[in-house]
C-alpha cells in the first residue's frame, strides 16, 4: 500500500544518512530545552547536502514541514515540530578549513563550539561568542539564534562574526551568501532564479524611503546590541546599498543569522576569528545586600571596561548549595548576598588588572553598593564561571511543582534604562502575586528573568501567556528586544508585531514569502 510512511521508507533507502519514524525516536525528538512538546512524523540524520536536498524535495511533495535541529538546546521551541526533524549534529560536524593568516574558519553546522575552540587554540585563535551550553551547542544553532554569551560586552554576537553562509534554498538550489559591494548586489539582482528573486525582493523593500523610515522608527534602539526580535532587516538597511554614508557591505548572512532556520538550510558557515585573550585575568565578585542594587552597580562596573559582567541572584545561589557538583565552586561566597555581580577584567599586564579592580571597588564603595569584593585569580576563575554556567541547570532542581520558566527570560534593554525597567517588571509580577529568578548578562542589558509558575496549574498556564504579553508591552516601551539571544521561536513569535509594529511585520512576511 502506498502510504506516507512507505514513501518515507523509500526516501530513507535513497539517503546516505538515515531516517526513522519509530515511536522511541519521535518521542525523543518531541522536545528541546523549552517547555514545548510536539511529536515529529520522522527524524532524519543527513550525511551530505544531497541528502538534505532529497528531504526538501520529499517534504515539498508531501506538503510537510522540515525543521533543522542541531544541539537541541533551544529555549523557545524552535526545533520541535510535527513535520520532519533534520538533525545535522550526527554527521555534518566537520571543521573544513582554518585560515590563520586571514583569521577565519569554515565549518559544517553540526560542529560543537567547545570542540571548535579546542582546535583553534592550537593556532592562538578562538570564536568569540560563547554560551553556557558551549560543550554541546552547535555552530548551526548559534547562527540560527544569533547566540551571544557572557563576553558579548567585548565580542558581540554570532552575527558580528559570520562572514558567509552556504545554503540550500526552498527549491533545493544552492546559494552562498556573503559580503557584496554595490556592483555585486546589482549582479545578484539580475540572476534568473530564486536567489536573484531574493535579492530583488530585499532591494525593493529596503529601497523604499517610507519602509526605511518605518524600520528605523519601529526596530529596537540601536544601542541595544542583543537584538533578535524578527528578521534583522534593520541590519541590512545599514549597508552602503541603502545608506550612502555607510561603507558597510551588504551581507545576507546578517539576516540568516538570527532567522532560526526559517529562510534557508545552512550547510556551511565561514566565521571570523579573534586572537586568544591575554592570559592575565581576574574576577571581582561583588556581593550585594539588595538584589536591585545590581542594576545600578552594573553601570559603575561598565565604566572600567570589563570583559564581562554577569549576575546571579540569591535564589540561584541557594539552589547551588544542594548541588554536589557545584558546592566547591561556592568557595568565594561570603554571607548570604541578595545578588552577586561577577566582573571580569582581562589586561596585558597584571598591574593593569589590579588597578582596574581597585578603582572599580573604590567607586562601588563610594556609591554604597556591596559589602564584599573578593578578587579571584588563577585556576579558581574557572570554578566561578562553572557556578555561573550551572545557573540554568540548577533552576530545574527547585523543589515542588512551581518552577522558574522560560518566558520573559530573554529581554534586552539599554543598560542605562535597566533599573527602571526592572522596577516595572517587579511591579508586573507583584500584581499577579508571583516572583522571579534574575541572572545572566546584566552587562549588556539582557537578564534571564524567569517567573516561578506551576505549569500543571491551569491558572498559571493562562498567566504564562499574560505575563509574556505584558512583558512585550514593557519591552516596546523601552525600545528593547524581546529576544536578546534565545530567539523568538514559538514562545515569542506571536509578539513580533507588537514589538516591531504591524507595518514592519508585514515587511517580514514579504521577506519570508519570497524565500519560501
Protein architecture, described:
- This protein has 516 residues and is α+β, with helices and mostly antiparallel strands.
- 38% of the residues lie in helices and 17% in strands.
- The chain has 21 helices and 20 strands.
- The strands form five sheets. It has a seven-stranded antiparallel beta sheet with strand order 17-14-16-15-19-20-18. A five-stranded antiparallel beta sheet has the order 5-6-12-8-9. Strands 1-2-4-3 form a four-stranded mixed beta sheet, covered by helices on one side.
- α8 (194-207) packs antiparallel against α21 and α17 packs antiparallel against α18 (458-477).
- The radius of gyration is 23 Å and the shape is globular.
Radius of gyration: 23 Å
Average pLDDT rating: 94
Percentage of residues in strands: 15-25%
The number of helical segments is 21
Q: Which outline best applies? A: globular
User: What helical percentage do the residues reach?
Assistant: 25-40%
Labels describing this entry:
516 residues
Short overview:
The protein is built from 21 helices and 20 strands. The chain has a 7-stranded antiparallel beta sheet. The longest helix is centred in the C-terminal third of the chain and has 20 residues, at 458-477.
Amino acid at each position: 500500500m502506498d502510504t506516507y510512511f512507505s514513501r518515507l521508507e523509500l526516501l530513507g533507502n535513497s539517503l546516505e544518512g538515515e531516517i526513522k519514524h519509530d515511536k522511541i525516536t519521535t518521542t525523543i525528538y518531541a522536545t528541546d530545552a523549552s517547555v514545548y512538546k510536539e511529536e515529529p512524523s520522522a527524524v532524519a540524520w543527513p550525511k551530505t547536502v544531497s541528502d538534505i536536498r532529497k528531504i526538501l524535495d520529499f517534504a515539498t511533495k508531501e506538503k510537510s514541514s522540515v525543521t533543522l535541529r542541531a544541539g537541541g538546546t533551544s529555549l523557545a521551541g524552535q526545533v520541535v515540530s510535527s513535520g520532519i526533524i533534520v538533525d545535522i549534529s550526527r554527521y555534518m560536524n566537520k571543521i573544513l578549513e582554518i585560515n590563520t593568516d586571514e583569521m577565519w574558519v569554515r565549518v559544517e553546522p553540526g560542529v560543537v563550539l567547545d570542540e571548535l575552540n579546542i582546535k583553534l587554540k592550537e593556532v592562538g585563535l578562538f570564536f568569540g561568542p560563547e554560551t553556557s551550553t558551549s560543550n554541546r551547542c552547535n555552530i548551526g544553532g548559534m547562527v540560527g539564534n544569533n547566540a551571544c554569551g557572557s563576553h558579548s560586552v567585548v565580542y558581540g554576537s554570532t552575527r558580528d562574526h559570520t562572514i558567509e553562509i552556504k545554503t540550500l534554498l526552498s527549491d533545493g538550489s544552492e546559494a552562498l551568501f556573503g559580503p557584496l559591494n554595490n556592483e555585486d548586489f546589482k549582479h545578484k539582482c539580475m540572476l534568473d532564479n530564486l536567489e536573484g528573486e531574493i535579492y530583488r525582493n530585499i532591494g525593493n523593500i529596503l529601497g523604499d524611503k517610507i519602509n526605511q523610515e518605518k524600520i528605523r522608527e519601529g526596530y529596537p534602539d540601536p544601542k541595544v546590541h542583543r537584538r533578535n526580535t524578527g528578521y534583522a532587516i534593520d541590519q541590512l538597511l545599514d549597508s552602503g546599498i541603502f545608506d550612502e554614508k555607510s561603507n558597510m557591505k551588504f551581507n545576507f548572512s546578517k539576516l540568516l543569522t538570527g532567522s532560526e532556520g526559517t529562510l534557508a538550510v545552512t550547510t556551511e558557515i565561514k566565521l571570523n576569528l579573534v586572537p586568544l585573550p591575554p592570559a592575565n585575568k581576574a574576577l571581582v565578585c561583588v556581593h550585594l545586600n539588595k538584589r536591585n542594587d545590581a542594576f545600578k552597580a552594573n553601570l559603575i562596573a561598565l565604566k572600567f571596561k570589563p570583559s564581562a559582567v554577569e549576575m546571579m541572584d540569591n535564589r540561584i545561589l541557594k539552589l547551588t548549595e544542594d548541588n554536589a557538583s557545584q558546592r566547591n565552586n561556592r568557595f568565594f561566597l561570603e554571607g548570604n548576598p541578595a545578588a552577586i555581580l561577577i566582573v571580569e577584567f582581562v589586561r596585558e599586564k597584571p598591574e593593569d588588572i589590579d588597578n582596574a579592580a581597585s578603582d572599580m571597588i573604590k567607586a562601588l564603595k563610594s556609591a554604597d553598593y556591596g559589602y564584599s569584593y573578593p578578587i579571584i585569580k588563577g585556576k579558581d576563575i574557572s570554578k566561578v564561571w562553572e557556578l555561573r554556567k550551572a545557573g540554568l541547570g540548577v533552576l530545574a532542581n527547585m523543589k515542588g511543582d512551581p518552577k522558574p520558566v522560560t518566558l520573559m527570560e530573554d529581554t534586552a534593554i539599554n543598560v542605562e534604562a535597566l533599573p527602571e525597567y526592572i522596577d516595572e517588571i517587579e511591579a508586573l509580577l507583584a500584581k499577579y502575586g508571583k516572583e522571579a529568578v534574575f541572572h545572566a548578562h546584566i552587562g549588556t542589558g539582557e537578564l534571564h528573568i524567569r517567573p516561578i509558575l506551576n505549569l500543571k496549574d491551569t491558572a498559571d498556564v493562562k498567566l504564562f501567556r499574560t505575563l509574556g504579553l505584558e512583558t512585550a508591552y514593557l519591552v516596546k516601551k523601552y525600545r528593547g528586544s524581546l529576544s536578546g539571544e534565545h530567539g523568538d521561536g514559538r514562545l515569542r513569535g506571536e509578539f513580533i508585531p507588537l514589538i516591531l509594529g504591524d507595518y514592519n511585520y508585514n515587511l517580514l512576511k514579504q521577506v519570508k514569502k519570497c524565500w519560501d
